[in-house]
Structure formats: C-alpha cells, structure tokens
Amino acid sequence: MRMAGAGAAADNRRMQSPFQQDHTPAPVLIAGGGIGGMAMALSLHQVGVPCVVLEAVPELKPLGVGINLQPNAVRELFDLGIGADALDRIGLAAREWALVGRNGNEVYAEPRGVLAGYRWPQYAVHRGQLQMLLADAVRKRLGPGAVQLGRRVTGYRQTADGVTALVEDRDGSRHEIAGRLLLAADGLHSAVRAQMHPNQPPIQWGGAIMWRGTSPGVPVRSGASFVGLGSARHRVVFYPISPVDPATGLATINWIAEITVDNRDGWTQGDWNRRVQLADFTHHFDGWNDGWVDVPAMLRGAAEVFEYPMIDRDPVPTWVDGRVALLGDAAHVMYPVGSNGASQAIVDARVLAAELVAHGVGPAALAAYDRRLCADISALVLRNRGAGPFGLLNLVDERCGGVFDRIDDVIPAAERDAFMARYKAAAGFAIETLNAAPPTVAPGARVLES
Question: What is the DSSP letter of 139?
C-alpha cells in the first residue's frame, strides 16, 4: 500500500461522503470527469454500484477536436443506452479509412464500421461534445450530485476495507473523501498514477508535432472517409465529424497536420497544448494541392488551431494498488495513431464494471481487471509508438522514398492486408472476434452485495 505524505494528510479535513448520510455504503470514487470517467460512472450505475465523479475543472465545456470511436467502443456505448440517435447528433458514422501517398496515389483503403462487416458502426465525433453527452447522461441517471466540479484528487490513503481520496478544491481547501474504491481516470498528468508509480519515467516525446483544428469543407471520397495523406514523418489526417449542411454543402472537417523533428533537446515549448497562429506551421504544407484536396486552404479555414507534441508514457507493470485502479489515459496514454485512445478508455470502464459483477466491490475485481487488460494494452502503447497503422507509410518510405505509381509494385496487397489485420487484433477490434464476443457486461447484470 502506497501512502501519501504524513504532513499532507495531517492538513486535510475529513469529509463524509454524501452517500453515507443515510448509512448506505460509501461510494466508489472516480477521479476525472472525461470520457473514461463518465463511461465508468454510467457503467457502475448500470450494475448497481453508487459512485461519485470528482473533476478538477469548475465547469465542463465541450473542448477539443475530433476523435474516432472504434466499433468495440461504440458497442459498449450502445449497451449503456447511448445509441445511434445520440451519436448522430455529435458526429458521423465513418465509412472508409484510407492512406494516400504524397503524390496522391492510394496506399491502402478499407471500409469501416458496418460496411466492413462489424455489427456496430465506427463514429467520428467531436471529443468535447461526446464528453458532454456522457456527462448529461450521468447527471440524468445518477442525479446532479454525482458529478462534483472544482475538486482535484491529489492522492489517496488505504485501509483494509476502504480508500480515502485526498481532494483539493479550487479555493485551495483540502478534504478527505471516503470510498470503497478509487478509480482514477485523471489523464496524462494523473496524480493517482504518480503516487502509485512514483519512479515512473517522464512523459515520452518521439519528435512528432501535431497541429489540430476543424474547418468547413466538402467531404472527399466516400463522404465519411478518414484519410491519411503524406508520409510517416510529414502528413495530414482529415475526416468529417458532421453531416453535410444542406444549406452550404459543407461539413465540419477535423484535421491533424504533423511533422517529425529532431527531439534530442526535448519539448521546449512548455505547454502540452497551446493555441498557435496559422503562420507558425502552414509553410510545412505549401503546395499540398492534388486537386481532390487543397490542404493549405483546409488549414486556413480553421477558426483556431492548437499545437500538441505527440506524447505517451512508458507502460507500468500494473494499473492497480489494492483498492485503487487506473483507467484511460491515466493507465495508458498512447500516440493517437490508431484512433483508439478514447475507445480504450470506454472499454476499460466496461471491463472494470464486469469484474465488479464477477468479484464484488473490492480488490479482487481490480486485480482481475488488471490481469485482463494491463499487459495487452501496454503492448499496444508500444505498438502505437512505432506508428501503429500508419506504419504502412513507413514501409512505403523505406521501399521507394514515398513516390510510386502502383502500390502493388511496392507493397503487395496480401502484405498490406496482413499488416492491418495484426494491428486490429492487437487493438481489440478484429471483426470476427468482436462480433462473436458476448457483451462485456451481461444484460441485467448487477453487483450482489454480501
């Protein structure tokens, strides 16, 4: 059991959970109200476990840009009662995934979602709007007090039968909140992970810089295609996250422009995401106009642009310490090359809920969750560090310098298909496996209290 510093604990004030006022059991505490934290709250409610979400920001706002939800995560949302009607309001069902070389010739393309044979669609959605959708569902189902804003979890203490979250409010006051478990979905800079693994290496940056924004534009190819254009070290990724507006003929296009630079001096900008001007980076993409897509015009169409280093953390050997568990980015922040960061956070929540059903609300359930996911997803973090599905562009670069007329002369179709099949299997969304799998949380399953 890893203990918080004695001085910090002495300064804290003990706070009884609101769930204990009528002598009901202490709730499960969730640190972080992002996508993973809200999916966790909904999953706990579904299986009959009281919980409360402690979120650091004073107000939830629909921040961020586009993300993809893979069929394995969409399946879990559907099982939570977040259906296609809701997802259609905040995004668009994806139809195709494609890689295109710098000279406009296709490297690889495949259908996505139900068109690929999955029983569930893939969605491109606005990250912030998805978070708000889930938060609204939490408040509606669990009550307005289930999400407590302006409350940052800074650490924890454990006893044989419970856990205490150390919480700091926006005004600097500190409290202790008792819970049965602490589930930390508090992101890249997780204080819970830092206590659980105090000697973890620093954030890892491999040299890639991303600029992200959204612009109005005409969707290309299928009308709902995810397109990666360029090379492994110099590319643009773009896809629509809204239907076409009948009045304008335009959709909201999410885009990521990326280059890779020498990283020997580390990240020197200070901020992990910051607003930048178009002139700071668009020169890297001058002349990228193949007729079917005008990249400079797309970049210039953004109202605001944010710069991010492409970062992750080295995997840790366990996500669990007794009654405390990590999920989402706190457990496995990964390079966004496989469109599975948010998807995996949702899957984490569902697997954890299933293990609570199987083992009860205690350390045994968290240990089972750790055994099911930690090793495999840690391997996926490292696989994504090696370019993930964009590794096909690495092969093109290695074999022909990125310029070709016929991709079959560079990488035969069978080799391309095998490459993608290996990635899908590692990421947990191989079609046959996912379609045949039983629900993660059985319909009607409830945690039986002893």
Answer: H
